[in-house]
Amino acid sequence: MKHAADAGRKTALVTGGSSGIGLALAEGLARRGYDLLLVSNDPEELLVAQRKFFVQYRMEVRTVAMDLSADGEAERLYALCQGEGLTVEVLVNDAGMFIYRDVAETDLTRIRTMLGLHVTTPTLLCRLFGADMAARGHGWILNLSSYSAWMPWPGLALYSATKGYLKSFSEALWAELREKGVGVTVVLPAGVTTGLYGLATRYQELGRKVGVLMTPEQTAAIALKALFAGKKKCIPGVLNRLALPGLCLMPAGMVRLCRRWTKRFQK
Fold this sequence. Notes:
Layout: E1 11-15, H1 20-31, E2 35-40, H2 43-57, E3 62-65, H3 73-84, E4 88-93, H4 108-136, E5 139-144, H5 157-177, E6 182-187, H6 201-209, H7 216-228, E7 233-234, H8 238-248, H9 252-262
Parallel strand pairs: 1-2, 1-4, 2-3, 4-5, 5-6, 6-7
């Protein structure tokens, strides 16, 4: 495959693209003919991903190691793409983290990191690359929210609120950019077999077998199908969609029971 900066080539920029859903999304985009720019805060994972794409797809993949939660990193990433002459046709905001802990017990640094990853940086990247896409009259933006956007539960206050922001922001952005030829889709996965939640591998496998958890590959395939179909919102999994009304109407007493049972898992 030609270099990403070759004339006529289109690039897919995937944050959090070195592992989990982000890596699976990158693979799906590679199969669709996009060159890749993968961004992560883990240089070793990026190197492994880069080798994987070279071995399996015989393609050179650009990688950038940076902490996207830090101030100014969205602008730096955009400037890097501009300096390299990359046309970012697809922007995937997947970089994120998970916190399950009461707010009053959570370290301030972790709170700032989550706000940067789930709110500030994806917003700025959508602004910067979205303006270029609107000027060209085409492009795609995929934002990874979470099923927990509908779950303002104790212990999940920070995670669900920031993912709820991504949901609301993305749906409004979809309406703003669709008339300019730019597609915006927000994906709200439920449980996925990644290391995000700190779940042991055996429990991940059990969850997959009983249908509670989906694999990153399954989630990515559904997300990309929704993106290129121009959908505003996507909830992977039929059972997850069916369960949503009941989840939103769950009595406060049941939420408290769940909290007592799950509080031991706070981290």
